[in-house]
Amino acid sequence: SNENNNARGALIVLEGLDRSGKTSQCRRLHSRLVEQGIPIELWRFPDRKTCVGQMISSYLANKSQLDDQTVHLLLVLTVGRKGFPYFMSLMESKLKSGTTLIVDRYSYSGVAFSSAKGLDIEWCKAPERGLLAPDLVVYLDISPEKAAERGGYGGERYEQLEFQREVSQQYQILRDGTWKIIDVCLPVEDIEKQLRELVLDCITTCQRGKGDIGSA
Ligand code: 2DT
After folding, report:
1. 130 within 8 A of 215, measured Cβ to Cβ
2. Pathway it belongs to (predicted)?
3. Assigned domain for 51 exists
């Protein structure tokens, strides 16, 4: 049958510590691929504009206090859970219609940041089950020390060396063989190129209709 009937977009996730350059790499990648005429959208979690997102934003800015479990569950809601299916079904319909999604942080951030506070990792993962599984996870690798040297930590609650060390360890635990790791100490053009190649490969595979949209 016609290959194009199966054409779908790819769900591509970027993860990494604060100051790993995720957000600027996501933006560059997105605009390059738009120029190439690839149907693509850039998403980020948490979306601070939603109602729940505003509670999180105020917590991250140290303007309000919430206990660790509550923050975790609020973040889970923003990433699109069964009980809050809006993002999930929107993502799914975009992918099915052939649009690729580049996502700046996903459920891995949820687990890494909350377990870094000492919450049980299995407890953290439990409510994330059932989310759409990414076709590609790229980890922008930087040591917490190097990240801190880059300066410009914005003063948010999590932007502290000690805490980022914990987060980094949790990411190591979460990482499996399928994650692609890019060393962000490379020149910026090399990072961009590596990232673009990984992403284009993944888009091609998904266009050929290989594999269903998975669930985690
Ligand atoms: P940004 O600095 O990228 O805006 O992220 N976080 C994010 C969690 O703790 N759990 C999650 O599920 C997600 C998506 C990571 C703000 C902070 O939010 C953290 C950093």
Report:
1. yes
2. Pyrimidine metabolism; dTTP biosynthesis
3. yes
